[in-house]
């Protein structure tokens, strides 16, 4: 969202193998996190519309 409360709706096919259950924006950045039933967490850059990092459920 921008400073005026306007947002952008994204559709990312196959972003997760399970349904997305959480989305969390990181304040004052263009980044946000998604979590899903596949138990993976992904960091996205909304400005560039790209995946930045992927934490897999089995990573230690």
From TrEMBL:
Sequence ranges of the WD repeats: 13-54
Protein name per its UniProtKB record: Transcription factor WD40-like family
Source organism (scientific name): Helianthus annuus
Keyword annotations: WD repeat
Pfam families named among the record's database cross-references: WD40
Gene3D superfamilies the UniProt entry points to: YVTN repeat-like/Quinoprotein amine dehydrogenase (2.130.10.10)
Source organism phylogeny: Eukaryota, Viridiplantae, Streptophyta, Embryophyta, Tracheophyta
């Amino acid at each position: 969202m921008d400073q005026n409360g306007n947002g952008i709706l994204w559709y990312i096919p196959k972003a997760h193998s399970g349904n997305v259950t959480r989305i969390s924006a990181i304040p004052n950045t263009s980044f946000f996190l998604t979590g899903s039933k596949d138990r993976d967490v992904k960091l996205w850059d909304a400005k560039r519309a790209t995946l930045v990092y992927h934490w897999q459920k089995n990573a230690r």
